[in-house]
Specification:
Elements (H helix, E strand, L loop, with lengths): L1 H23 L7 H25 L7 H19 L3 H23 L4 H21 L1 H4 L5 E2 L4 E5 L2 E4 L3 H23 L2 H11 L1 H6 L4 H27 L1 E2 L6 H14 L6 H17 L5 H15 L3 H17 L19 H4 L4
Antiparallel strand pairs: 1-4, 2-3
């Protein structure tokens, strides 16, 4: 009970802190960090798409940049050629990414272990080179740009992404709603199926779970998360480029998810936040900041295999046990769902 109260209090404080960013940050003389935190929120959805596959289903994907790019171009092209607003462009980007995930996933989820990881990279590279070649449509490496769109309008009153605060709160609301939906899914019977397949796909099949269909649904949902991230990023930068479809973007998302804690709801958010903030601080003083980021990632994998979220949970459990050690028969409370396997085990198969 104590760990649950502490965790919920920490979550509430995180939500309050995020909501207060546009108010508090300017007090320190610079609004630069408002955009950085908005960027963290956006990229965390890409890490969450990796987390859904790796942490909840046990499939390591290095191809989520593909769906990020499809969502990004879906939003940008719909604004440029269809005159779609923010909500229409966001919806088109997510749906386009999920359709692409449905096509690629029909083949990819038939494979496991490193074969799955390899084929996700292959699909990502195919679409990356296709987007680079279709320069009249996509702009290739140069990309395409568009103006800030309207978020809400009523009569003469309009809210546009050109306003930094409107942009931040729009991103915060959308990302918050997606995380709430993600939480509902992983706590539903479908989420239980995900974790059953992750723990042991053969035993899951023996109790009547369709392993292929479960992985396929997870793959499509993960594509939607990545697509939402891409669409938001397009609106954030008013720009879309094929360079974001390259697999190194997927690799960064994998690192963010692992550092934050695969198999935890908000682990990707904390992992993304930590590494992007480190990047911004260290890069101002040292151009080889990636050495520090890489060293930190290695240390987390070695000393906290379940990431920051796992270390937090373990710390709370130790605190609870130390306080309740004098109680006869006392047991430490458990999480709402079982923790993910360490990264090495999660990709090994059942």
């Amino acid at each position: 009970m104590t760990t649950t109260i502490i965790s919920r209090a920490a979550l509430l404080l995180t939500m309050i802190a995020l909501a207060a960013v546009p108010v508090v940050i300017p007090m320190f003389g610079s609004s630069f960090w408002i955009d950085i935190i908005a960027e963290i929120l956006i990229w965390s959805l890409l890490a969450a798409s990796v987390n859904l596959l790796l942490g909840y289903v046990g499939l390591l994907s290095f191809g989520q940049a593909l769906y990020f790019g499809v969502g990004m171009y879906g939003a940008a092209l719909s604004v440029i050629h269809l005159g779609a607003g923010f909500w229409g462009g966001l919806a088109i980007g997510i749906v386009a990414a999920m359709i692409m995930a449905a096509i690629a996933g029909s083949v990819a989820v038939r494979l496991t272990w490193h074969y799955f990881a390899i084929i996700t990279v292959v699909f990502s590279l195919i679409l990356y080179f296709a987007a680079m070649s279709a320069k009249p449509l996509t702009g290739g490496d140069d990309g395409i740009s568009f103006s800030a769109v309207e978020v809400f309008g009523l009569g003469g009153y309009k809210l546009s992404l050109a306003d930094q605060n409107v942009q931040y709160y729009t991103i915060l609301i959308v990302v918050g709603a997606i995380y709430a939906l993600f939480s509902t899914i992983v706590r539903s019977p479908l989420g239980v199926r995900f974790m059953a397949v992750r723990e042991n796909d053969r035993r899951a099949a023996l109790v009547g779970i369709n392993v292929y269909l479960t992985r396929y649904v997870a793959f499509i949902l993960a594509g939607g998360l990545a697509g939402a991230s891409g669409a938001l990023f397009a609106f954030f930068g008013r720009y879309a480029s094929a360079s974001y479809m390259f697999y190194h973007v997927s690799g960064e998302a994998v690192v963010w998810a692992i550092v934050g804690g695969a198999g935890s709801l908000l682990g990707p958010l904390f992992g993304t936040g930590l590494l992007i903030i480190l990047r911004e601080i260290i890069s101002a003083f040292w151009e080889h900041y990636l050495f520090v980021v890489g060293a930190l990632t290695v240390l987390v994998v070695i000393f906290a295999p379940r990431g920051l979220a796992g270390a937090w949970s373990d710390g709370l459990n130790l605190l609870t046990k130390s306080k309740g050690s004098g109680d006869a028969g006392g047991t430490a409370p458990t999480d709402d769902h079982p923790p993910a396997k360490p990264v090495a085990d999660a990709t090994r198969g059942g």
